[in-house]
Amino acid sequence: MNTFEDLELFELIIDDNDIEAGVFANSFVEEPAIERDFVFFNKQKVEFQSIDDEKRLVAGPLLIPNKKIVRMDDSLGLYNVFFKPDTIEKIARKFMKNKYNGEVTVDHDKKVNDVYLTESWIIEQSSKDKSNLFGFTLPKGTWFGIYKVDNDKVWEEVKQGKYKGFSIEGIFEHQKSTERFSQLFTKDINDLNDNEAEVLLSYIRNLIKKDLRYKKKSKIEMESWNDYPESAKNNACKVLRWIDEHGRDEVQGMTTTGLARANQLCNGENISEETIARMASFARHKENSEISEEFKSTPWKDKGYVAWLGWGGTTGIEWAQRKLESIRNER
Questions:
Q1: How many C-beta neighbours within 10 Å does residue 3 have?
Q2: Confidence band (pLDDT; 50, 70, 90) for 205?
Q3: Any idea what DSSP says for residue 281?
């Protein structure tokens, strides 16, 4: 069976000095990308301590090292990505340092409260790890986590089997491909093997989830918007001017993704709902909205402030939060 070994392969990495990079949330999903379900348990399954109340805990792998994960987007087509063990360890430690334990969404969409990471670790020995108690045998270097679910609605959905695993949300660097894998879309559907059909079905499912108007049998069009404030454009343009004047070596803090965003905003381009959601999530870096005292006279050297402005600054990010809520409320 075709395992997509012929796809382009990219290692996902993070820069320790890049405030944008890394995992900033975990999502409870129906189809985890790492293809390992989590387990949920209560007092009838696994006892952690001698109490009578239901534990409401879910446990499972958050990232598995060297595991190829099929991805698809408009620019790259189909491709494989993977994380090395040392990168996973960096991600896990940065996640904890930034106190993102309570940053949880469902189906990469709605943020939920009262769900938080209560315990996580990097597996050192596959056959002698606490995760074995939950029925897992995972490779060394796996990031494993246990979430406490105090949200009644989410817990009921976990028990009903709606969510089966974790899926990370984050920003990573990887080299873009010049190739596109388009064979799936030129084959007769009857010629697809099981693995190919599953990837294609997953892609279609993800497209549908992005626009729920299919329920009304109306035409699906991927919308975009450019009604963000003029001040958001000015903030992004300021960063680009700094780069032109002082060079990338002096003006740091912007990743490839951040620069793309700054260019979009500065040029007044339309941006998608997904981009708006990423802008809104950048509010987690609000501590960088003010210039550090040591950089008052050279603001372009303040990495955090540069990144904040590049993503639209306070007015742009607050607009994104309002806009995202409005889009979802309309649906």
A1: 10
A2: low
A3: H
